[in-house]
Design the sequence.
């Protein structure tokens, strides 16, 4: 079970790092596909920093958790992902639900579930178990 969780978390971390590099180096393709547009240089810099940085943080904490089997890094990742999920729920509250909004919500919820299972599985076990 631990090895499976570490592999899943490692894959999540690699995909998140790929997302960070995509937002930094393939700016137009990444943001156009997400329905985001930057008007000028400061807009592009902010999107690279905020969205790319978010993906970088998620990737770094998840990979650290996977390599070290570190529960604290799982908490950090869960906080970042929970913040994105809350943002999506707020968006639905203001703008209503639409079909393109569902896939990212599902992905974030599944990743949070994997993080929760890993956190539980990596907890301190009683003597003899």
Sequence:
């Amino acid at each position: 079970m631990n090895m499976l969780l570490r592999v899943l978390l490692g894959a999540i971390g690699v995909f998140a790092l790929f997302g960070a590099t995509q937002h930094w180096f393939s700016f137009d393709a990444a943001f156009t596909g997400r329905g985001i547009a930057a008007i000028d240089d400061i807009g592009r810099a902010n999107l690279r920093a905020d969205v790319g940085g978010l993906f970088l943080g998620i990737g770094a904490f998840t990979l650290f958790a996977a390599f070290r089997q570190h529960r604290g890094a799982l908490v950090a990742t869960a906080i970042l992902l929970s913040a994105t999920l809350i943002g999506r729920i707020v968006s639905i509250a203001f703008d209503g639900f639409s079909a393109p909004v569902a896939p990212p919500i599902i992905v974030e919820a599944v990743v949070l579930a994997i993080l929760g299972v890993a956190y539980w599985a990596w907890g301190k076990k009683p003597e003899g178990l």
Residues 2-121 form one domain. The helical segments are 2-25, 27-33, 41-68, 71-95, 102-121.
